[in-house]
Write a structure and sequence with these properties.
By secondary structure, this protein is of the alpha/beta class. It contains ten helices and eight strands. The structure holds zinc ion (2 copies).
């Protein structure tokens, strides 16, 4: 289900951060407690803060237990910020999902990553060319959206984690997606009531593709939400991002 209203306004998009990691993600700074993240969100004037800790196969993180723990903690934190306790779940292959369907549905936000190719558990395409990866990503997303599990796609088409590729090859995975394919999958997401992340590390690293996805999505009428993939308190806030985002997608 969509968690935010549809908007294409960079200023409004940056009032919500749907992709911070807390201490429950081993890669996040130890300062990322729920309360500290919320106080930082207040300071930055955010309306919505999601907690999206990793939930990958073999990571030994108990996503549902963490969800219950944070929902308990939240009862004792008074804040005007809307706090969503979700997870960055994994669609780690075509029709392969890290958590049972019931757990996805219990979360406030089932954000899905489909590009964690750096993990040992992730399925790779037989064709290991940039086009092979592009086709695999589309197939993974297609199977995911058909299940109705996902509320949100975290870093869609982000080649950031493809460490086995050069920068040029990473960019080539994006160019290898045709306009028809991109429009088709964006439409399927909208029909599945699933939003697409404007993942700021990817948007600023691959601005041409990000602009293409944004403009096409706007034409179709899809839902976009912003996420900074924060691993530090500094990155929970979105100060200064509206202008930078506008320069890419405006
Ligand atoms: Zn990720
Ligand atoms: Zn993340």
């Amino acid at each position: 289900m969509f968690v935010l209203e549809r908007t294409y306004d960079p200023a409004e998009l940056t009032r919500h951060n749907l992709h911070p990691h807390s201490v429950c993600s081993l890669c996040a700074k130890r300062e990322m407690t729920l309360e500290a993240m919320i106080r930082r969100a207040e300071e930055a004037g955010l309306k919505t803060l999601a907690v999206t800790d990793h939930s990958d196969p073999l990571d030994e993180i108990d996503t549902y237990a963490n969800y219950l723990m944070y929902k308990e903690q939240l009862k004792r934190i008074d804040t005007p910020v809307r706090v969503l306790i979700g997870a960055e779940l994994s669609a780690y292959g075509i029709g392969k999902f890290g958590e049972p369907f019931e757990i996805d549905r219990a979360l406030d936000l089932a954000a899905y990553s489909h590009t964690h190719y750096h993990l040992a558990s992730w399925e790779h395409p037989e064709d290991r060319s940039p086009r092979g990866y592009a086709a695999h990503e589309l197939a993974v997303l297609d199977a995911l959206l058909a299940t109705g599990r996902a509320d949100h796609i975290a870093h869609p088409f982000s080649p950031n984690k493809m460490h086995f590729f050069t920068e040029e090859q990473k960019a080539a995975t994006l160019d290898a997606i045709s306009d028809n394919e991109l429009g088709d999958i964006l439409e399927k997401g909208e029909r599945a009531r699933c939003s697409w992340e404007l993942h700021t590390p990817t948007v600023f690293r691959f601005p041409a593709f990000s602009r293409r996805m944004f403009l096409m999505g706007k034409e179709i009428g899809v839902h976009f939400c912003l996420g900074t993939d924060a691993h530090t308190l500094a990155a929970v806030g979105t100060e200064g991002l509206a202008e930078r985002l506008a320069a890419v997608i405006g």
